[in-house]
Design goal:
11 helices; 333 residues; two-stranded antiparallel sheet; 4 strands; single chain; 5% strand
């Protein structure tokens, strides 16, 4: 197993697991990668992302062909070194690719088991100092680094272990809403409902530290690469690495004093409304639920309504009694 696969900066943990599992199989083993992913415990969506990553880096090549009976089949080939399309065609046809070590044997599908390696014959030694050439397709940070320099993100279920547990529930809910808004607005950061729930405490921690929803959106969408293979991993990395510093006790006291001063400086009549009833002079009142009349006018209106209802009831009762008397008189005659 070359060190470049284990330390590959652009392959996720699922892609490395799928590749190492397939390479560990016997030379004569014939198995579809989807079946290998099932045995390796990799889900359907994770397998799709891992397969896309391996193909983009040259570790996986596929050929789709139609047989004599009209049925289509797909031939897959993996390698322990990245191959171009031309080199993969040569290895598929049984011709050496010119790369050391050559992937495949002159007969059959022989990509898999590797010869025993030692320090002397290892063709893939670790790069000195861990330096590498930056890839423009990666995520460049404003400080000059590259997001690919970070370790591969852990799977989404493991994110719960790193989520802060002291964030209040309302902030966690607001953080989830902020992540959902970013996911809907940026196609490269599509998150599932599970990802949003797992990452919501991290976003809520930002809000607890004094950041705004706009700050979270800017931190997640700035300097994005052209293609994001693991949106949940990138969001987790940025929320963790770019998390603002927690305010000190003095800063918290100063913020509390500012809020109290703003509340005291706000005029008490700012939320009051002028009554639309009939008054000799304008009367202000504090509405509770959008009322347009002051309490006094509402009481007068209610009393007038009750008096009108009573008067109407009395008139109705007198009319009914008169009708009954007239009918009684007619029966007696």
């Amino acid at each position: 197993m070359p060190n470049e696969i284990i330390r590959h900066p652009r392959l996720s943990s699922d892609a490395v697991r799928l590749l190492t599992w397939a390479l560990s199989m016997a030379d004569e083993a014939l198995e579809a990668l989807s079946d290998t992913a099932k045995r390796a415990g990799i889900g359907k969506s994770a397998f799709t992302r891992a397969k896309r990553e391996l193909a983009a880096e040259g570790f996986l090549h596929e050929w789709r062909q139609q047989g004599d009976g009209g049925r289509w089949s797909t031939e897959q080939m993996i390698s322990n070194v990245p191959l171009t399309a031309e080199e993969a065609d040569q290895a598929r046809g049984g011709r050496p690719s010119g790369q050391s070590p050559a992937t495949g044997e002159p007969k059959g599908r022989a990509v898999g088991r590797l010869p025993k390696k030692t320090v002397e014959n290892n063709p893939n030694p670790p790069s000195p100092g861990g330096t590498r050439r930056p890839d423009p397709a990666q995520d460049e940070r404003p400080d000059g680094g590259w997001e690919g320099d970070q370790p591969s993100p852990a799977p989404a279920p493991a994110l719960t272990a790193t989520a802060p547990s002291t964030v209040p529930a309302p902030l966690v809910e607001r953080g989830g809403q902020a992540l959902a808004a970013v996911s809907h607005g940026e196609p490269r950061l599509r998150l599932s409902g599970h990802d949003v729930r797992v990452l919501a405490p991290l976003a809520g921690d930002w809000l607890q530290r004094g950041a705004t929803v706009a700050d979270i959106r800017e931190a997640l969408t700035q300097w994005l690469p052209d293609q994001v293979h693991s949106p949940a991993g990138l969001v987790r990395d940025r929320l963790t690495r770019k998390r603002p510093a927690a305010p000190t006790f003095a800063e918290q006291r100063a913020a509390d004093r500012r809020r109290v001063a703003e509340a005291e400086s706000r005029p008490r009549v700012a939320d009051m409304r002028e009554c639309r009833g009939e008054h000799d002079q304008p009367r202000l009142f504090l509405p509770v639920d959008g009322e347009t009349l002051c309490p006094s006018c509402r009481c007068d209106e209610a009393e007038a309504g009750v008096a009108g209802a009573v008067e109407a009831a009395l008139r109705g009762g007198a009319a009914i009694r008169g009708l009954l008397r007239a009918r009684t008189a007619g029966v007696a005659a």
